Amino acid sequence: MVALMPYASSNRLIGELTFLEISNRLSKRSILCLPIGSLEQHGPHLPLNTDIVLAEGLTERIILRWGEGFDLWQLPTISISLAREHEWAPGTMSLSIQGMTTLLRDLGREIARAMPTRNLAIINGHGGNRGILEALAQDLRADFALNVCILHPGALSEFDENGAIPEIHAGKNETSMMLAIAPQLVRQDLIAQLQRPTAREVIRNTVLSFEVTWPWTTQDGRIADMGVIGDARAASAELGQRIVDHAVDRAGVVFGQLLEKQ
Predict the structure, then answer these.
(1) φ, ψ dihedrals at 93, nearest 5°
(2) Residue 15 binned pLDDT confidence (cut-offs 50, 70, 90)
C-alpha cells in the first residue's frame, strides 16, 4: 500500500485552506492580497490575459518575499474589470462601472463578514482600473471598515520624461514584464512590425493630462499602433526583471504602512 502524504498548502492561497484553518491560521494582523487583472487586447504580441498574468505573477512574488513576515494570503483573482478603452478589439471583455462597483462592494462586505482580518492590499494589474479603485477604496474603508491600500505596479516602471514616448499600454515596460514573468506567452516575432507612435504631445495631452480628462481609446491611430501605446521594440527581460524587483521591494514598505493604519 502506498502511503499518502498529508496535504499542505505552501503558497498561501486562501482557497486552499479549510474553514477551520481560516480561524486557526489568520489573525487580525494578516493581510489579504487581491490580484485584479483584465481581459483585453495588448497588441499583436501579447495575450488578452496579460494583466491577469502580471497581477498574479507579481502577487505570487510579493507573497514569496514578504508572506511570512507580514502574514500575507492571496485571494482569488478578479480577472475581468474595466476595459472600455479596448472594446473595439475582439476578445476584450469589460464590466460596466456599475458592475465593477457592485463587485468590489460585495467583496468588501464579504471580507469583513467572513475573515478574521480586515487588512486588504489590492494588486492592480490594469491601469484602467486606477480611477474607480481609488474611489472605491473610500467606500471599502468607510462602509466596511476595511484597512485597504492599492498597489499599482505599472506606475513603478521607468519613464523618460525628456524624450521617450510615454509607456501607456503593451509597450516597452509591459512587454518587458511579460518577458520576465511569462516569456512563453510573448509573440516576439510580431514585435518588429509595430511602429512607435511619434505624436508624443498628443499622447500626453490625451491620456496623461492632469488638467483635462478625455475618453480615449487604443483604436485612436494618433496615439496607438495596433492597440499599443509605447515602444515594445525596446522591451527586454532584463528591464522587466528590474521593474518586477522594484515592485516587490516597494510592497514591503507599503505593507508596513498599512499595518500602521490598522
Answers:
(1) -130, 135
(2) very high
- Euclidean distance between CA atoms 50 and 60, whole angstroms: 15
Distance between CA atoms of residues 124 and 136, nearest Å: 13
Contacts of 76-80 with C-beta under 8 Å, sequence gap 24+, read 76/14, 76/15, 77/34, 77/35, 77/36, 77/37, 77/52, 78/34, 78/35, 78/36, 78/37, 78/103, 78/107, 79/37, 79/38, 79/39, 79/49, 79/52, 80/38, 80/39
Query: For the whole model, what pTM was predicted?
Result: 0.93
pLDDT on residue 198: 63
CATH superfamily of the 29-260 domain: Creatininase (3.40.50.10310)
Cβ–Cβ under 8 Å, residues 248 and 240: no
CB 81 within 8 A of CB 38: yes
> What pLDDT was estimated at residue 226?
95
Query: Would you state the cell numbers that stand for residue 66, as one nine-digit string?
Result: 514578504
Closest CA to 222 of 182, 246, 195, 191: 195
Place of cell 501579447: 46
% pLDDT > 90, the chain: 84
Q: Is the pLDDT of residue 197 over 80?
A: no
User: How far apart, in whole angstroms, are the C-alpha atoms of residue 81 and residue 102?
Assistant: 12
Residues in the chain: 262
Instruction: Please name the amino acid found at residue 231.
Output: D
Mean pLDDT of 116-134: 97
Q: What is the mean pLDDT of residues 132-142?
A: 98
